[in-house]
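Project outcomes to date are best conveyed with an example. Our students and postdoctoral researchers have been running inverse folding experiments weekly, and each run begins with a structure described purely in tokens. The record below, which covers 329 residues, was selected by the lab manager from last quarter's runs and is presented without edits.
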């Protein structure tokens, strides 16, 4: 009778181990890393355990195997073998087919209690256990997504994976789109010190044309008297065909639009659509001019940095067709 009770106790312990293992399998590395950083001591212990990944599974299955085998051996000595086989079959079908795939609050409580001890055991058993299951960086696919940072981490992990089959442009676009929501004008604009502005009364001639062309910009705020007194904007394309001299004032667009430096880039897009303009003078809370932002600046934040090899020509139909075919071949 004593042997049967011990056997049943061992089976109960194996079930408890399975419940704890099931609890660990549902825990997110990202979430417990965040909690650990916030000073949660319990989360720190659990985080140290789940970082071992598949080694945790190996450890528990080893314990479960030993407990189950010992229990069966004790029962074989007291009960006919065919009864033991039938009973253990029913037990295994229920426990491994039902309990393992369920999440129990008891399992999480026990997982928290044993985490400090389990972390030490896994640490000291590394010389042996790491030979069977080396520690590998846990796949982000197996981690839960709770916040924007988790989703970004997943996409970047996928981007770097050698097994990735998602188009690189699609992943880059997804990452940039997510990050776009957090970006503001100040971090994307051309700062004031880099802006080339033009005096409204200046004459258009070879010297001015060369200065504007060499600046690398296509749009220039136009001021009168003082550089912070803007009266319009000048597009380089509007004066390229000027054969005779003239005043800048004759070619400027006199309507100016402003936007706050802390506005989101989504607000800039809305402003572009509403005003049908693609250049905005950026001001701070004191109405001081601090920069310039264009539609191009916003688009760069959406699609990312364009490499020199991507600077294709779009003014020739044949080139456009060839570029499209090369990219999609």
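After processing, the design step wrote out the following sequence:
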């Amino acid at each position: 009778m004593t042997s049967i009770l011990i056997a049943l106790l061992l089976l109960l312990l194996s079930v408890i181990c399975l419940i704890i293992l099931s609890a660990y399998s549902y825990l997110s590395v990202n979430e417990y890393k965040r909690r650990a950083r916030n000073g949660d001591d319990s989360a720190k212990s659990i985080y140290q355990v789940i970082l071992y990944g598949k080694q945790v599974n190996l450890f528990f299955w080893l314990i479960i195997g030993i407990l189950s085998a010992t229990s069966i051996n004790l029962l074989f000595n007291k009960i006919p073998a065919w009864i033991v086989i039938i009973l253990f079959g029913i037990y295994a079908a229920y426990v491994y087919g039902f309990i393992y795939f369920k999440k129990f609050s008891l399992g999480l409580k026990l997982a928290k209690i044993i985490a400090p001890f389990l972390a030490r055991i896994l640490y000291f058993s590394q010389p042996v256990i790491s030979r069977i299951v080396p520690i590998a960086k846990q796949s982000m696919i197996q981690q839960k997504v709770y916040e924007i940072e988790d989703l970004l981490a997943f996409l970047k992990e996928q981007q770097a994976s050698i097994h990735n089959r998602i188009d690189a442009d699609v992943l880059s676009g997804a990452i940039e789109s997510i990050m776009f929501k957090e970006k503001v004008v100040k971090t994307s604009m051309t700062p004031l010190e880099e802006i080339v502005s033009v005096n409204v009364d200046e004459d258009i001639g070879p010297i001015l044309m060369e200065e504007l062309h060499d600046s690398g910009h296509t749009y220039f705020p136009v001021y009168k008297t003082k550089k912070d007194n803007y009266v319009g904007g000048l597009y380089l394309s509007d004066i390229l065909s000027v054969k005779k001299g003239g005043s800048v004032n004759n070619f400027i667009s006199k309507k100016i639009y402003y936007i706050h430096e802390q506005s989101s880039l989504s607000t800039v897009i809305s402003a572009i659509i509403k005003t049908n303009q693609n250049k905005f003078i950026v001001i701070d809370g004191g109405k001081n001019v601090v920069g310039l932002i264009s539609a191009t600046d916003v688009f760069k934040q959406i699609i990312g940095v364009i490499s020199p090899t991507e600077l294709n020509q779009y003014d020739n139909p044949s080139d456009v067709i060839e570029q499209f075919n090369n990219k999609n071949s």
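Residues 199 and 225 are 8 Å apart (CA to CA). The chain has two domains: 2-144, 185-303. The training component of this project remains on track.
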